Amino acid sequence: MIFVGVALFVAVALAIIVNADAGALVGLGQSETARLIALVAILIVVAGGAFSQRRKLGEILANLVLWGGLFAVAIVGYTFRADIMTISERVLAELAPGAAVVDTVSGSATFHRALSGSFKVNGSVNGADVHFVFDTGASAVVLTKADAEAAGIDLSRLRFTLTVQTANGKGLAALTSLDSIDVGGIQRHDISAFVVDEGSLETSLLGMTFLETLSGYSVANDALVLTD
């Protein structure tokens, strides 16, 4: 009980410090410091359990080291939470290339740059999964023949008469219209697109006929943000 009283005393003392905005000295806001105080108080009370029973000194010291280590990890994790989040998002981009982080409140979808330097974007065309590469240099959405066929486009009715410049050089393409395209929950209908001949592209491109329908898109800090 004595230790619990000490914990409450420490919590009150720290609360007074918060009111003085002392948390700003270590880069924490008042609300953030208040949450930190709650964590400290909880750890003090829990650690008090080690003293509420008669135990050997070595066991008590081991418990102190354990709780001290957990407290240090919590403080470091909280302090570098933004960096940890950035690293976790980059890891996600490599483990699940093209996966979107969707924010339903702002209506945005965020994609993180892969180690290759490009932005891989998972989407769907006419309900079929398509893996795109974000490309503002492409005047339209461009599909490979394989992706177009998976999307239910009748290739036999297309006329490959348009000459286009691709990463693999010049190739032939056909104009078509996509009934629907979905990228990170952002849906559009009747989007003009090209289907390129075999061997012209390895990956479909998310080009301007889709991007220009958005309220905005931006690239910053290795993150691509598409906003509906």
Concise account of the structure shown:
The chain is of the alpha+beta class. The protein has helices spanning 2-19, 30-52, 57-79, 81-95, 145-150, 208-211; strands at residues 101-103, 108-112, 120-125, 128-134, 141-143, 162-166, 169-183, 186-196, 204-206, 216-220, 223-227. The termini are far apart.
List the helices and strands and how they pair.
Layout: H1 2-19, H2 30-52, H3 57-79, H4 81-95, E1 101-103, E2 108-112, E3 120-125, E4 128-134, E5 141-143, H5 145-150, E6 162-166, E7 169-183, E8 186-196, E9 204-206, H6 208-211, E10 216-220, E11 223-227
Helix pairs in contact: 1-2, 2-3
Helix and strand composition category: alpha+beta
Number of domains: 2
> Helical percent range?
25-40%
The CATH first-level class of the largest domain comes to Mainly Beta
Number of helices: 6
Helix and strand succession? HHHHEEEEEHEEEEHEE
Distance between the termini: 57 Å
**Under CATH, the topology of the largest domain is which?**
Cathepsin D, subunit A, domain 1
Any descriptors?
single chain, 228 residues, alpha+beta, Cathepsin D, subunit A, domain 1, four-stranded antiparallel sheet, 6 helices, 39% helix, elongated
